Amino acid sequence: MLQEPLTLYKLIILYLLGRASMPLSRKRVCDFILDKGYTNYFILNQAIGELLDAGMISSQTVNERPHLTLTEEGTQTLSFFQSNISDVTKAEINAYLRENKLELISELSVTAYYDKAPSGEYVAHLTAKEKGIPLVQIMLSVPVEETAASICQNWREKNEQIYQMLTQELF
């Protein structure tokens, strides 16, 4: 058994990211580990920080949220030490990923962000992808930042209905 609980939490994070085979939002990683009661918020963030510092995971922003990905170094470390993770914990991780697969894919397939244009207006960039291929990409220019933020939020919530409406009207 492992001597230090923090090491076990790091291995659980590595295993979760490795089994996901896609970037997971930091919130998803935290929610899973905290919901299972493995550790508390502060220790979990320490573990994530140390994994980032050690180069075993990387962070990238997707949909204005940090997403974590397993690096090659993290994969190698996991291959050496994954036997230290209990079969029960592995089963819980596998079940979580299986049960939430569509939501996890959707988080990466639908993007929405806005930025300020040189003209002073705000441009909302909206995309929906399937298997990495863009189905629809929309850019909307609006005069107020709050409107751009609202457009992005509505796109995240209603992208399927909007896509269906567009295809019905255009085809």
Topology at a glance:
Blueprint: H1 5-20, E1 24-25, H2 26-35, H3 41-53, E2 57-62, E3 65-70, H4 72-81, H5 87-99, H6 101-109, E4 110-116, E5 122-130, E6 133-142, H7 145-170
Rg calculated over all Cα atoms: 19 Å
Please provide the ordered H/E string of secondary-structure elements.
Answer: HEHHEEHHHEEEH
Contiguous low-pLDDT stretches (5 residues minimum) are none
Strand percentage: 15-25%
Compute the number of helices: 7
E-strand count: 6
* Strand order, largest beta sheet: 1-3-2
Distance between the termini: 61 Å
Give the averaged pLDDT, no decimals.
89
Can you give keywords for this protein?
171 residues, single chain, 3-stranded antiparallel beta sheet, 7 helices
Walk me through the structure.
The chain has 171 residues and is of the alpha+beta class. Helix content is 57%, strand content 23%. The protein contains seven helices and six strands. It has helices at residues 5-20, 26-35, 41-53, 72-81, 87-99, 101-109, 145-170; strands at 24-25, 57-62, 65-70, 110-116, 122-130, 133-142. It has a three-stranded antiparallel beta sheet, with helices on both faces. Strands 4-5-6 form a three-stranded antiparallel beta sheet. Helix 1 packs across helix 3 (41-53), helix 1 (5-20) crosses helix 4 (72-81) and helix 1 runs parallel beside helix 5 (87-99). The N and C termini lie far apart (61 Å).
Short description:
It is built from seven helices and six strands, in the order αβααββαααβββα. The chain is of the alpha+beta class. The strands form two sheets. The chain has a three-stranded antiparallel beta sheet with strand order 1-3-2, sandwiched between helices.
